[in-house]
Amino acid sequence: MSDTKFGTFFELGGRGAMEALTRTGLDYVIIDTEHGCLSEETTADMILAAERSGLLPYVRIGDIRRPYVLRMLDVGARGLIVPYIHSADEVRELVSYAKFPPIGNRGYCPNRTTGWGADEWSRDVLSYMETCNERCKVIPQCETREALDQIEEIAAIPGVDGIFVGPCDLSIALGIPLQFEHPMLLEACECILTACHTNNIEALIFAGNMNDAVRWAKKGYDSVAYSLDASVLINAYQELVQRFRSEE
């Protein structure tokens, strides 16, 4: 379990909140632009705040259309978590936008990650494209029945760096809403894990509590995204309040 990466979702916004997370020992943070109310400018600021302190900034985008993919990569996202995937063809389209040739057809433009062309290393365009393809991870979510049915094909697509399991929406799609101990969901998670490791890509999963986080790590998941910043904050203060009241 010591090798399992551990991260969280970031939805609260604010540079101070991000800078606080950089001091926790987390491996990565997923800046959530799907459910969180974060603008592109705010997301760019959060990416900068994270990477300055060595916290890996991923972004969950809300749409697989080309502008959504390019903008987040150009402002410095080190990986894209992409929700609501329904088919292998959607993933191939996603890869075509997110990866430079020869893997995809990502559009080239000097941006903040290269100092807008001023950084020495970025002037070798072929080296730059190769480095971006390695550094910028494409991670589709498996949270629909259709994606689950095609998971072996999706995991084998060149340019896919990992699969992120969303147990909440996946359980709903399977007709067992939030029944995290249901055999059908557990079997699905095992199937996704196997597909990932068969294709030598990373298996990531969301966990809403520590028991689930530890369980998925022991099962062999490479990365666990634990809860979200707002929930952790609420729970921490609830425990403090209860402890204080019990001592009165």
For this structure, the CATH topology is: TIM Barrel
CATH class: Alpha Beta
> From the alpha-carbon coordinates, what is the Rg to the nearest angstrom?
19 Å
**CATH-scheme architecture:** Alpha-Beta Barrel
Unreliable residue stretches: none
For the terminal residues, how far apart are their CA atoms?
A: 40 Å
The whole-number mean of residue pLDDT values reads: 94
H/E element order: EHEHEHEHHEHHEHHEHEH
Identify the CATH homologous superfamily: Phosphoenolpyruvate-binding domains
Shape: globular
Compute the number of helices: 11
Strand content: 15-25%
| Number of E strands | 8
Helix proportion of residues, in percent? 40-55%
What topology, given as strand order, has the largest sheet?
1-2-3-4-5-6-7-8
Count of discrete domains: 1
Largest sheet geometry: 8 strands, parallel, barrel
Structural class: alpha/beta
Provide an overview of this structure.
This protein is of the alpha/beta class and about 250 residues long. The protein has a single domain, classed as Alpha-Beta Barrel (TIM Barrel), CATH 3.20.20. The protein has 11 helices and 8 strands. It is globular, with a radius of gyration of 19 Å.
In short:
This protein is α/β, with parallel strands linked by helices and 248 residues long. Helices cover 46% and strands 17% of the residues. It has helices at residues 15-21, 40-52, 66-74, 88-98, 125-135, 145-149, 151-155, 167-173, 183-198, 210-219, 229-247; strands spanning 5-10, 28-32, 56-60, 79-82, 137-142, 162-165, 202-207, 223-228.
